Amino acid sequence: MKFGIYPGGRAGTICSHPPDVAAIRHLVDDLPDGRPFVIREYVHFLGDMAPPDLVTSLGAEHELAHLTMPDEWYVEGNRELDLVVSYIPRAADLSGWLAFLDTVIDRYGHLTRYLQVTLEPNFPIPLIDGSAPGVLEALTLGIPHARAALDRQGLQHVQIGFSVAEPPEWLGGDDQFWSYLSSVPYQDFAAYVDYVGLGLYPDAFSPVAPRGNPGDTASLTTHALRHLRGASLPRAHIPPSIPIHIVENGTPSGSPRTEQAQCDSLSDMLGVILTEQEPMNITHYELFSLRDADSSSTEPTGTLGIVTDTYRPKPALAVYRDIVRSAGPLPVTRRP
User: Fold this and answer.
1) d(Cα 40, Cα 114) in Å, to the nearest integer?
2) Do the strands 37-45 and 2-5 form a parallel or antiparallel pair, or are they unpaired?
3) Considering Cα of 162, then 71, then 17, then 52, what sign does the dihedral take?
4) Tell me, what's the pLDDT at 333?
5) Which InterPro entries match (predicted)?
6) What is the DSSP letter of 313?
7) Around 29, how many Cα atoms within 13 Å sit in the side-chain half-sphere?
8) CB 252 within 8 A of CB 262
């Protein structure tokens, strides 16, 4: 399994400090110890009518100029860029969206290894793609459009996918989403999908049962994986041969939780994921995130990092580093 992380220190509109490039370099270099490592980043399509304060709150004003780190960093040291193109305009804008995909590919395609088209389009909450008008068409037309654009540039090695949040009971039901995908012929959509991403936060936003009991973090993780593979993906004509990427997974450490509880939860979730990687065809795991968005926040999204917002390591950093080094692919030595 390949491992990775989001390094930027932003969760939605929460970001207490700008990124420290030197600190990120040091921490991310240390985690895999030379092993292949995936770096997750985000750009946003907001349409023509996005209020400037929304653009600023999402940190989206400079996304086409640069990501968190300098361009060359994403292809050095056995790193691979997983780039998410999020669709959240106020009004449906398919032509603008497809043009934006072209722009993103022109700008970042040469750096990218995995291109995720839309972010959790089955999840209808504000500032997540499932709430955006026209998101189903943005997904199903965007993926083949992106494939054609990449191929025109000789970037056939870039894999294309999309992500979902699972299971449906966390969302209040997502039957409409999967019903729509079931109506799209295989050759028009699923044939272009190289992987499906899963956003997985079983204990982040609601209480769970104590460790070792039904309904605990481990059992909820198992349920999410098996429901996605066994129930949801077949409806979208996506076969077992298409891998699952755990593209976001995290657990908070802020009050009333503790940093030790974060360690325990991360260990439990990763234990399940590693056990299920072969039967569920899970090939990638990306942690959200390296840094807290705001270590003083009372919101769970503020403390998902394995270091604080000032880059002080939490115990979970060592937990994740040990797993990456023991369960990840062997280091690759690149020829000069």
Assistant:
1) 9
2) parallel
3) negative
4) 58
5) GH
6) B
7) 9
8) yes
DSSP symbols for 11-37: BTTB-SS---HHHHHHHHHHTTTTS-E
**pLDDT of 161 over the 50 cut:** yes
> CA angle 11-15-19, nearest 5°?
105
Q: CA 159 from chain center: how many Å?
A: 14
pLDDT score at 203:
95
CB 238 within 8 A of CB 193: yes
What pLDDT, in 10s, does the model give residues 214-252? 999 999 999 999 999 999 999 999 999 999 999 999 999
Contact of 37 with 79, CB cutoff 8 Å: yes
Closest CA to 226 of 272, 192, 160: 272
* Mean pLDDT rounded to a whole number for the chain: 95
> How many Cα atoms occupy the beta-carbon half-sphere of 1 within 13 Å?
27
Question: Which residue, among 10, 72, 4, 3, has the nearest Cα to 302 in the 3D structure?
Answer: 10
Question: With pLDDT > 90 as the criterion, what percentage of the chain qualifies?
Answer: 90
The DSSP H or E segment spanning 163 is strand 159-165
Distance CA 188, CA 177 (A): 16
pLDDT at residue 171 is higher than 80: no
Q: How far apart are CA 267 and CA 50, in angstroms?
A: 40
Q: Give the mean pLDDT of 270-289.
A: 98
Determine which helix (DSSP H) or strand (DSSP E) holds 278, and give its type and residue range.
Answer: none
Q: Which CATH number fits domain 2-327: 3.20.20.80, 3.10.105.10, 3.40.50.1010, 3.40.605.10?
A: 3.20.20.80
Instruction: Name the β-bridge partners of 295.
Output: none
State the greatest distance between any 2 C-alpha atoms of the chain, in Å, as a whole number.
52
Task: State the Cα–Cα distance between residues 71 and 65, nearest whole angstrom.
Answer: 10
Residue 78 burial (10 A CB sphere; 0-12, 13-18, 19+): middle
Those residues whose C-beta lies under 8 Å from the C-beta of residue 305, and which sit 6 or more positions away, are: 9, 289, 290, 291, 292, 293, 295, 314
The DSSP H or E segment spanning 245 is strand 244-249
